Amino acid sequence: MSRSVLCAVDISNVGKDDQVLKTAKRLADLDGAQLDVVTIVPDFGKSLVAGFFDASHHAEALKAAKAELKQQIITSLGPDADAKIRHVVATGTAYEEILRTAKEIGCGLIVIGAHKPDFADYLLGPNAARVVRHSQCSVHVVR
């Protein structure tokens, strides 16, 4: 697999995705693949709550997410690794954007973390389960 490895992280869970990032880097290094790291910013653009945010909110949220993603990668993997990683900040629903990004970049593997499911996850299905179910490439789930 010389295609890229896509690692999905949640920047709101600072420190909880360290093992996910380390696993993704190890798997990318094993194949000499490019490591891409994606995080998702919720899209409030067409919902009822959108009226409560000013017009620049989305641009500011993207800028902040990119900075937080970079800091999380540097903290987990170091600045040398960060310099080689492509940072992706997408807007929308987490599992949909992970799948869209994976397809867009033509990745060969998605690495995603899974937390201990709670009751709501059994009813709605967690993002990791949806990615596994609908992905067109292999998915490595880190517990």
Q: Beta-strand percentage? A: 15-25%
Strands, total number: 5
Q: Strand order, biggest sheet?
A: 3-2-1-4-5
- Which regions contain 5 or more consecutive residues with pLDDT less than 50? none
Quick one: CATH superfamily?
HUPs
**What is the CATH architecture assignment?**
3-Layer(aba) Sandwich
Question: Average pLDDT, to the nearest integer?
Answer: 88
Sheet having the most strands: 5 strands, parallel
| General shape | globular
Radius of gyration: 15 Å
CATH class: Alpha Beta
CATH overall fold name: Rossmann fold
* Helical fraction: 40-55%
The number of helical segments is: 6
- Provide the structure class: alpha/beta
**How many structural units, i.e. domains?**
1
What would your notes on this structure say?
There is one protein chain. Helix content is 47%, strand content 19%. The protein has helices spanning 18-31, 57-77, 79-84, 94-105, 119-124, 127-134, and strands at residues 5-8, 35-41, 86-91, 109-113, 138-142. It has a five-stranded parallel beta sheet, with helices on both faces. Helix 4 (94-105) runs parallel beside helix 6. The longest helix has 21 residues, at 57-77.
Any chance you could write out the topology, listing elements then pairs?
Blueprint: E1 5-8, H1 18-31, E2 35-41, H2 57-77, H3 79-84, E3 86-91, H4 94-105, E4 109-113, H5 119-124, H6 127-134, E5 138-142
Parallel strand pairs: 1-2, 1-4, 2-3, 4-5
Helix pairs in contact: 1-2, 4-6
